[in-house]
Design the sequence.
């Protein structure tokens, strides 16, 4: 079970690292042939980084909520229907 959790965190982490690399390359003018324009490359880098970071953050928040480690601000409230 821990191996699956590790793989779930490593994969988005690698995507976020690749996003940082794309942002850096766009800032320094290193163009990759996969992207049509350097601005598209930079935007893809921002999206990859934000997506990977959001997934890791959501995973950690879900785990902490399940173990009751969050403070009152992050407690999940169930509203009556």
Sequence:
């Amino acid at each position: 079970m821990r191996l699956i959790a590790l793989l779930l965190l490593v994969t988005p982490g690698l995507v976020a690292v690749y996003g940082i690399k794309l942002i850096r390359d766009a800032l320094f003018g290193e163009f990759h042939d996969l992207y049509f324009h350097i601005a598209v490359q930079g935007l893809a880098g921002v999206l990859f980084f934000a997506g990977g970071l959001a997934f890791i953050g959501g995973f950690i928040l879900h785990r902490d909520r399940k173990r009751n480690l969050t403070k009152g601000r992050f407690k999940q409230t169930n509203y009556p229907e």
